[in-house]
């Protein structure tokens, strides 16, 4: 009889509805995902990423607020260190006598610059 014979591959009967099989597959997938997500390695990676983001902000703040002010005083720099740049290729409106005064001006002109400040 077509409706009562067990399916040898899945262990279910042919009378199972498509929705019931879908629910079982989704539940099996979700249970597998939960088992994977709560393994020790995944939690360690997530914790490491959180610490790395916090450490990046800490180092960035330390360099810009603590290290750069004394360096800009020690070196003969008349303007802010963050505005230091080198023009690799000048833009179409480049004036050879004055050059670019600011990084923003060079970028607006379409120049290729290396900002090292």
From TrEMBL:
The keyword Transmembrane helix applies. Its main location: membrane. SUPFAM superfamilies: Gated mechanosensitive channel. The keyword Transmembrane helix applies. The chain crosses the membrane at residues 36-59. Keywords: Membrane, Transmembrane, Transmembrane helix. It is found in: Membrane. GO terms for molecular function: mechanosensitive monoatomic ion channel activity. It comes from the Eukaryota. It is a multi-pass membrane protein. GO terms for cellular component: membrane. PANTHER family: LARGE-CONDUCTANCE MECHANOSENSITIVE CHANNEL, MECHANOSENSITIVE CHANNEL MSCL. This is Large conductance mechanosensitive channel protein.
């Amino acid at each position: 009889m077509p409706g009562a014979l067990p399916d040898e591959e899945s262990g279910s009967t042919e009378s199972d509805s498509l929705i019931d099989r879908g629910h079982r597959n989704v539940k099996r997938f979700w249970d597998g995902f939960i088992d994977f997500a709560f393994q020790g390695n995944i939690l360690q990676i997530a914790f490491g990423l959180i610490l790395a983001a916090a450490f990046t902000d800490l180092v960035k703040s330390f360099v810009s607020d603590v290290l750069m002010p004394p360096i800009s005083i020690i070196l003969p720099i008349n303007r802010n260190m963050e505005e230091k740049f080198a023009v690799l290729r000048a833009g179409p409106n480049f004036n050879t006598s004055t050059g670019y005064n600011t990084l923003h001006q060079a970028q607006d002109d379409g120049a290729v610059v290396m900002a090292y400040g």
